[in-house]
Specification:
Intradiol_RC_Dioxygenase, binds fe (iii) ion, 14 strands, alpha+beta, Intradiol_dOase_core, Catechol_dOase_N, metal-binding, binds benzoic acid, five-stranded mixed β-sheet, dioxygenase, Protocatechuate 3,4-Dioxygenase, subunit A
């Protein structure tokens, strides 16, 4: 019989998990066991504390469904999502940096033409985001797809509302010369959902639970790495304290105030609007 002691249990558990048939699974699981045991030893984890943690994980699972992604939120506020993004998207200097996907992206957004309005009747200041999608060498990337989504002026995403139609999200295509034009409303900073286990935990700290105003982008184009990123408004509140660590200086854009009149898509806007100009630079795929 194998005698299990406080001293040998980590080695025994690692040996067991090293038998995983897939070598990468074996590597991941043995490292996980080692770090979990080290954590428990370092903090001298009590049984009551471990039960509280298990109940928190259970609640995180129970509140999650196809619209509510509490585990993504947990990973985001721990800084783990952003660490994994940065390790896996080490683009060349000059390429637009990647940031977190977040829990609110919805697949299959409707396609809109150049300057098509993804805000429909949602209240807010009209915002045009225009620019060119380029490759690292500066050449335009025709037909890049820009999948765009954002929150409304109350900080609510479609996934958090009971609506039947696509709301504040759309797909745009860059034209032959790489230019694109998104029409939406100026986003506001907002709080992450605080009514679940993640909010409960954050509420026990001094952590700010807000994100600075931003619009999300997922760009895809032939021959280039997909790019998940955001554009943040220059001067926005919470840029220095983003609760999910998603801000980067390269992703901050100026909003220029415009009077009623002609807009970048050649049409007219009858109320004051704002314009943000940004050229996305995509990282070409590594040669095989
Ligand atoms: C978001 O920007 O949509 C988001 C990202 C991470 C956590 C919560 C929200
Ligand atoms: Fe967001």
């Amino acid at each position: 019989m194998q005698l299990v002691t406080e001293d040998n249990i980590t080695t025994l558990a690692e040996q067991r998990w090293a038998t995983a048939k897939d070598p990468r699974t074996a590597q991941l699981m043995t490292a996980l066991v080692r770090h979990l045991h080290d954590f428990a030893r370092e903090v001298r984890l009590t049984e009551a504390e471990w039960m509280t943690a298990i109940q928190w994980l259970t609640a995180t699972g129970q509140i999650s469904d196809e619209k509510r992604e509490e585990f993504i939120l947990a990973s985001d506020v721990l800084g783990l999502s952003m660490l994994v993004v940065q390790m896996n998207h080490r683009f060349e200097p000059g390429a637009t940096p990647a940031t977190v996907l977040g829990p609110f992206h919805i697949e299959g957004s409707p396609e809109l033409g150049f300057g098509g309005d993804m805000s429909d009747d949602v209240a807010g200041t009209p915002l045009y985001i225009t620019g060119t999608v380029r490759s690292l060498d500066g050449s335009p990337v025709p037909d890049a797809v820009l999948d765009v989504w954002q929150a409304d002026a109350d900080g609510a995403y479609e996934a958090q509302l009971d609506v039947d139609e696509a709301r504040l999200r759309a797909k745009y295509h860059a034209r032959e010369d790489g230019t694109y034009c998104v029409r939406t409303i100026a986003p506001k900073g907002y709080s992450i959902p605080m009514d679940g286990p993640v909010g409960d935990l954050i509420g026990r700290t001094e952590i700010s639970h807000f994100r600075p105003a931003h619009v999300h982008f997922l760009l895809t184009a032939d021959g280039h790495e997909p790019l998940i990123t955001h554009l943040f408004e220059e001067g926005a509140e919470y840029l220095d304290s983003d609760v999910v660590f998603g801000t980067k200086q390269e992703l901050v854009v100026r909003y220029d105030q415009r009077e009623p009149g002609s807009t970048p898509d050649g049409l007219e806007c009858s109320v004051p609007w704002v314009e943000a100009r940004y050229d996305f630079v995509l990282q070409p795929c590594a040669p095989h």
